[in-house]
Amino acid sequence: MTIYMREDVEFVKPNAKKHPQRSSIQHWQLRDLIACPNSKHEFMYVNQNNVYQYNTEHKQVTPILKDLTFSPTSITTGHGFLAAGGQRSQLMVRQLSSNWCAHTTVGGSINNAMCISQHLGGTRLLICNNDETIKVYSLPGMQRITSVSLPTAVNYAAVSPDGRKMVAVGDSPQVFLFDISASDGYARVATLTASNDAGFSCAWNQSSEKFAVASQDGYVSVWDIRNTGEKIAKLGSKQNPQVKGACRSVKFSPTGSIDLLMYSEHMSYINVVDARTFNERQTVRVAPSSSDQHISGITFSPDSKNIFVGMESNVWEFEVDTMNRRCFPEGSII
């Protein structure tokens, strides 16, 4: 699998907007602390023991979870809910359209990541824990549905948009692929190998056909669900193999016509890749040229027109060149 990578492309426009919101990192490897669930004009981020929402038009900060008893190591949003997890299995869930909240501990160790998904008309919260399990709860009922056991600490899980598959990664190079049955079952159907180190993030594209895994050794691996026998891409980081080139977070654009894959490095750089061919990439330095800076998270807006990059001192907002992404070369098959 050899892909010639063209680098002289511009998927996101220069001159990013700088929002003076500080996002704080609680765990040196967990970097998924910013979200944009509802509008391209609003993003959520972790600051110490709070989760805030920032409106980019009105420059207004709104507390969503304030004065928590823990500082979140992970957050996620989806289907009208926000969840925040802590170092000692703490969990806080809020329904964004109401004041409903639930605060509990789920057992085990660090809640490394969470995923909110739909299942047969209901909503589920999946919690990835260092105790080698993914704990599955109903929302908003917070009833424990099942627990999925894996042979390693679980760092991240993602459910496909069609609700039929799940991929999970942890403190090994293995990638665990599951079928989600009409009942409550999560059946492991394949175990793949990403690279040579732990996986810290995974994501599905909007058609539920491709999934990507970000690994600590500085690679993002991509598979097509229709043939998992061979990767369709293996993408390196700018700073690989240095520790600061570890791939910490990976996201596909949520709308189909944009077809981008974005991944962040441990420090200073994000990469934006053509998710149709995987042979064009734009690497963007989000830290000053004079110093390296930690990245706390990355997210697309729901319409894929903007991306937000969390830093410890500010949040960057980049505009996606959507016109360019909707223009296909002559002869392209889409």
Automatic annotation (TrEMBL):
WD repeats lie at residues 192-227. Residues 245-284 form the DUF2415 domain. Keywords: WD repeat. PROSITE patterns: WD_REPEATS_2. PANTHER family: DUF2415 DOMAIN-CONTAINING PROTEIN, WD REPEAT PROTEIN (AFU_ORTHOLOGUE AFUA_8G05640)-RELATED. This is DUF2415 domain-containing protein.
